[in-house]
TrEMBL record:
<dbReference type="InterPro" id="IPR000238">
    <property type="entry name" value="RbfA"/>
</dbReference>
<dbReference type="InterPro" id="IPR023799">
    <property type="entry name" value="RbfA_dom_sf"/>
</dbReference>
<dbReference type="GO" id="GO:0043024">
    <property type="term" value="F:ribosomal small subunit binding"/>
</dbReference>
<protein>
    <recommendedName>
        <fullName>Ribosome-binding factor A</fullName>
    </recommendedName>
</protein>
<dbReference type="InterPro" id="IPR020053">
    <property type="entry name" value="Ribosome-bd_factorA_CS"/>
</dbReference>
<comment type="subunit">
    <text>Monomer. Binds 30S ribosomal subunits, but not 50S ribosomal subunits or 70S ribosomes.</text>
</comment>
<keyword id="KW-0963">Cytoplasm</keyword>
<comment type="similarity">
    <text>Belongs to the RbfA family.</text>
</comment>
<dbReference type="GO" id="GO:0030490">
    <property type="term" value="P:maturation of SSU-rRNA"/>
</dbReference>
<dbReference type="InterPro" id="IPR015946">
    <property type="entry name" value="KH_dom-like_a/b"/>
</dbReference>
<comment type="function">
    <text>One of several proteins that assist in the late maturation steps of the functional core of the 30S ribosomal subunit. Associates with free 30S ribosomal subunits (but not with 30S subunits that are part of 70S ribosomes or polysomes). Required for efficient processing of 16S rRNA. May interact with the 5'-terminal helix region of 16S rRNA.</text>
</comment>
<dbReference type="GO" id="GO:0005829">
    <property type="term" value="C:cytosol"/>
</dbReference>
<keyword id="KW-0690">Ribosome biogenesis</keyword>
<dbReference type="Pfam" id="PF02033">
    <property type="entry name" value="RBFA"/>
</dbReference>
């Protein structure tokens, strides 16, 4: 069965609330070290879980291991602010049950970059 219309709307509202909180309300130093963006929220069909996909853009040139450590620190910062975020979601959206938030790294940008590199190495010319 397909994803319901209600779950899509609720996920979008949660994304807006959390994005706004990242800009103004959450003062965790782990979140201030990099640019953090919420790329999307997927809701389960019963609305009990919301998976929030987080994109972390590192400031400056760092090696891959440092970027990974910074991304893990950002996820830890978000997990520690989960109670505050859920409280704000409950205040702004009238729900019987506030969904449990799960934060995951969004790796779609790196995957897209990798695919572009692979295609570039193939040497296929683009016709216009």
């Amino acid at each position: 069965m397909g994803k319901g219309y209600r779950q899509g709307r609720l996920g979008e509202e949660i994304r807006k609330i959390v994005s706004e909180m990242l800009l103004r309300d959450i003062k965790d130093p782990r979140l201030q070290s990099a640019m953090v963006s919420l790329s999307g929220v997927e809701m389960t069909s019963d609305g009990s879980y919301a998976t929030c996909y987080v994109t972390v853009l590192s400031v400056g040139s760092k090696d891959e291991e440092a970027k990974q450590q910074e991304a893990e620190a950002v996820l830890e910062g978000l997990r520690s602010a989960k109670g505050l975020i859920k409280k704000e979601i409950g205040r702004q959206i009238k729900l019987r049950h506030i969904p449990e938030l799960i934060f995951k790294l969004d790796t779609s940008m790196e995957y897209g970059r990798h695919i572009s590199e692979v295609i570039g190495k193939l040497g296929i010319e683009h016709e216009e």
